[in-house]
Give the backbone structure.
Amino acid sequence: MINLGAVAGCIVIPILARRNIMAAYSIPFVLLLVATACFVWGSGRYVHNAPHRPGNDRAEEERSRNLAGGGHEGSSFLDVARIMLLVVPFNIVYNQCATTCK
């Protein structure tokens, strides 16, 4: 899928942009929405395993509870979303280097 996205981004989108710029920018937007929806839809199925240390019965109980589909600790979708929001300001600053760092 990454290779298909690269081909679309390098070849198909620029060709389409010559005819209809709105359609060219809508394709990546819609596909990113679909990918985000798939991630959110499947996030309840993720299993977080506790670290296993030999001789630690509590860790073994926690591990078996997580594998059985019990409550899990760790990062949630909101934690990931908060971290991903840092990408936007980073890219804004990084893209300014070409104009300010001469």
Notes: The chain has a mean pLDDT of 76. Residues 1-45 form one domain. The helical segments are 2-19, 21-42, 57-67, 77-84, 87-95, 97-100.
